[in-house]
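User: Hey, my collaborator sent me this sequence without any context and asked if I could get a structure. I don't really work with proteins. Can you help?
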Amino acid sequence: MTTPPKIYKTEAIVLKHFAIGEADYLLTMYTPNGGKLRAVAKGARRVKSKLGGHLEPLMRTSVLMTRGQNLDNINQAEVMEGFRVVREDLDRLSRALYISELVDAITPDEQPNYPIYRLLFEAMRSLNENAAPSLMPYFQLRLLDYSGFMPELYKCVECGSTLAPGHHRFTPDRGGSLCDSCHPLNVSVLPLSLDTLKVLRFLQRETYANIERLHLEQGTLLELERLMEALLRHVLDREVKATRFLNQVAQGRTSDGISTLTASNTKG
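Assistant: No problem. I've predicted the 3D structure and written it out in C-alpha cell form, which is a compact way to encode the shape of the chain:
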C-alpha cells in the first residue's frame, strides 16, 4: 500500500469551525477527493493570522495541510470563492447554512464522494448567482441519492406495484411512495400529489443546469419541503438544527415571482 504524502494540498468548502485553545480553529471541510475532513488551523483566531480570513464557513478555499496523528494541520489557506452575495443576504445565508449542516450530518468522515462535493459546490455557486427556489428540493434529493438513500418514486414500497396516476402517498419510514391500496401499520404517511410526484421525478433525472429555471407554485414547494424534511429526519434520526432558522427566514419571504409549474414541464 502506498503511503500518503505527509504534506498535501486540496480545495475544500468549509462547513463549520469551532474555537479551540487560545487562538486555534477546529474546522470541518468537504473536499473533492477526501470527503469530509476535520483539521486544526493553529493561530487562525489571532488578529494578524494569515489563515483566519480564508477559512470562514461557506468559503471555497485552497489549503495546504500536514497530516497529524489525530487531526491534520492547516499550514496555508487561500480563498478561491468567498460567495459574498450569500453572506450578505439573509435568505441565501439561511439556505447555505442549512445545506452545509445537512452535508455534515449525512456524510461520514474521510470517505471520498466526489458527486457530493460537486453538488455542494454547485449549490453554493447557485445561491450566490440566482438562488432559484428549485435548488433546495433538488439538493436534498440528490444528496440523498449520493448518500444511498434515494426514495422510490415509481413503485409502491409496500407491494412493488407501479404507481397509478393520481393514487399515491409517501412514507418516509419506508423510503418512498405508496399505492392507494397499501396501508402499512405504524409508519408515517404523507400526502403526495401528482404534480409533486412529477416534480420529484424530474429533479431525480435532470441536472441542475436543466432545473434551475424551473418555476414551482407555492403549494408544490411547500409539499416538497414537508416530504424532504420528513425523509431527512428519518434518515438522520434527528432534525437538522438549521431547519428552524431556514423556516423562520422563509416565512418572511414574499411569493412574488413564483409561477405555476405545468405538467408539460415535468412529464413523469
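In plain terms: The CA atoms of residues 14 and 220 lie 32 Å apart. You can pass these C-alpha cells on to your collaborator as they are.
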